[in-house]
Amino acid sequence: MSPLPLASWDLWASMQPAFMQGALNTSGLMAGGDGVECTKCGRHYKLKSSLRNHQKWECGKEPQFQCPYCNYRAKQKMHVARHIERMHREKLEMLELSERASLTVKEDKEVPQNEVAQ
Ligand SMILES: [Zn+2]
Ligand SMILES: [Zn+2]
Protein backbone atom coordinates (compact mmCIF):
# COMPACT_ATOMS: atom_id res chain seq x y z
CA MET A 1 0.00 0.00 0.00
CA SER A 2 2.39 2.71 -1.09
CA PRO A 3 0.87 5.90 -2.57
CA LEU A 4 2.25 7.19 -5.83
CA PRO A 5 5.18 9.53 -5.43
CA LEU A 6 4.45 13.12 -6.38
CA ALA A 7 6.73 12.95 -9.40
CA SER A 8 4.45 10.37 -10.93
CA TRP A 9 1.45 12.65 -10.53
CA ASP A 10 3.27 15.47 -12.31
CA LEU A 11 4.17 13.11 -15.09
CA TRP A 12 0.60 11.91 -15.33
CA ALA A 13 -0.75 15.45 -15.41
CA SER A 14 1.70 16.54 -18.08
CA MET A 15 0.59 13.67 -20.26
CA GLN A 16 -3.05 14.68 -20.18
CA PRO A 17 -4.47 16.43 -23.21
CA ALA A 18 -4.92 20.18 -23.03
CA PHE A 19 -8.62 20.06 -22.38
CA MET A 20 -8.04 17.91 -19.32
CA GLN A 21 -5.53 20.38 -17.95
CA GLY A 22 -7.95 23.19 -18.65
CA ALA A 23 -10.55 21.33 -16.66
CA LEU A 24 -8.08 20.84 -13.83
CA ASN A 25 -7.42 24.53 -13.36
CA THR A 26 -10.75 26.20 -13.91
CA SER A 27 -9.48 29.17 -15.84
CA GLY A 28 -12.84 29.97 -17.37
CA LEU A 29 -11.22 30.53 -20.71
CA MET A 30 -13.31 27.81 -22.22
CA ALA A 31 -16.80 28.81 -23.20
CA GLY A 32 -18.74 26.73 -20.76
CA GLY A 33 -22.21 27.90 -21.63
CA ASP A 34 -21.89 31.25 -19.91
CA GLY A 35 -21.58 32.97 -23.22
CA VAL A 36 -18.83 34.70 -25.08
CA GLU A 37 -17.17 38.03 -24.69
CA CYS A 38 -16.16 40.48 -27.36
CA THR A 39 -12.43 40.92 -27.09
CA LYS A 40 -12.68 44.48 -28.38
CA CYS A 41 -15.31 46.04 -26.17
CA GLY A 42 -16.03 43.38 -23.56
CA ARG A 43 -19.70 42.94 -24.32
CA HIS A 44 -21.16 39.62 -23.34
CA TYR A 45 -23.26 37.49 -25.61
CA LYS A 46 -24.91 34.18 -25.01
CA LEU A 47 -24.35 32.92 -28.49
CA LYS A 48 -21.26 32.91 -30.62
CA SER A 49 -23.39 33.90 -33.58
CA SER A 50 -24.60 36.97 -31.68
CA LEU A 51 -21.03 37.94 -30.98
CA ARG A 52 -20.11 37.51 -34.61
CA ASN A 53 -23.08 39.61 -35.60
CA HIS A 54 -22.01 42.25 -33.12
CA GLN A 55 -18.47 42.29 -34.42
CA LYS A 56 -19.61 42.42 -37.99
CA TRP A 57 -22.13 45.22 -37.63
CA GLU A 58 -21.73 46.97 -34.32
CA CYS A 59 -18.36 46.81 -32.69
CA GLY A 60 -16.44 50.00 -33.38
CA LYS A 61 -18.73 50.85 -36.27
CA GLU A 62 -20.92 53.79 -37.03
CA PRO A 63 -24.60 53.08 -37.52
CA GLN A 64 -24.89 52.47 -41.23
CA PHE A 65 -28.58 51.76 -41.65
CA GLN A 66 -30.63 54.89 -42.04
CA CYS A 67 -34.36 55.18 -41.61
CA PRO A 68 -35.75 56.61 -44.86
CA TYR A 69 -38.39 58.62 -42.97
CA CYS A 70 -36.44 60.27 -40.19
CA ASN A 71 -33.01 60.71 -38.74
CA TYR A 72 -33.00 57.42 -36.94
CA ARG A 73 -29.96 55.35 -37.61
CA ALA A 74 -29.06 51.92 -36.38
CA LYS A 75 -26.23 49.51 -36.55
CA GLN A 76 -28.42 46.66 -37.58
CA LYS A 77 -30.84 46.52 -40.44
CA MET A 78 -33.26 44.66 -38.23
CA HIS A 79 -33.36 47.56 -35.81
CA VAL A 80 -34.32 49.99 -38.56
CA ALA A 81 -36.97 47.60 -39.78
CA ARG A 82 -38.40 47.34 -36.29
CA HIS A 83 -38.24 51.11 -35.91
CA ILE A 84 -40.14 51.61 -39.16
CA GLU A 85 -42.78 49.12 -38.10
CA ARG A 86 -43.33 51.01 -34.89
CA MET A 87 -42.92 54.62 -35.93
CA HIS A 88 -43.88 54.74 -39.56
CA ARG A 89 -46.44 52.02 -39.82
CA GLU A 90 -48.82 54.11 -41.88
CA LYS A 91 -46.09 54.83 -44.39
CA LEU A 92 -45.19 51.20 -44.46
CA GLU A 93 -48.70 50.33 -45.48
CA MET A 94 -48.53 52.76 -48.34
CA LEU A 95 -45.23 51.48 -49.51
CA GLU A 96 -45.00 49.99 -52.92
CA LEU A 97 -43.23 46.72 -53.20
CA SER A 98 -40.53 48.32 -55.25
CA GLU A 99 -39.83 50.79 -52.49
CA ARG A 100 -39.66 48.00 -50.01
CA ALA A 101 -37.04 46.38 -52.14
CA SER A 102 -34.93 49.52 -52.02
CA LEU A 103 -34.79 49.16 -48.27
CA THR A 104 -32.73 46.05 -48.53
CA VAL A 105 -29.17 47.06 -48.09
CA LYS A 106 -26.62 45.69 -50.42
CA GLU A 107 -24.07 43.62 -48.64
CA ASP A 108 -20.57 44.21 -49.74
CA LYS A 109 -19.32 41.02 -51.21
CA GLU A 110 -15.75 40.40 -51.98
CA VAL A 111 -15.32 40.20 -55.68
CA PRO A 112 -12.92 37.47 -56.62
CA GLN A 113 -10.18 38.70 -58.84
CA ASN A 114 -9.72 36.33 -61.66
CA GLU A 115 -7.21 38.32 -63.59
CA VAL A 116 -4.73 35.98 -65.10
CA ALA A 117 -1.45 37.42 -66.21
CA GLN A 118 -0.65 36.31 -69.67
ZN1 LIG B 1 -17.39 44.54 -29.39
ZN1 LIG C 1 -37.77 56.68 -38.71
From TrEMBL:
InterPro entries: Znf_C2H2_sf (IPR036236), Znf_C2H2_type (IPR013087). SUPFAM superfamilies: beta-beta-alpha zinc fingers (SSF57667). Coiled coil: none annotated. This is Uncharacterized protein. It comes from Apolygus lucorum (Small green plant bug).
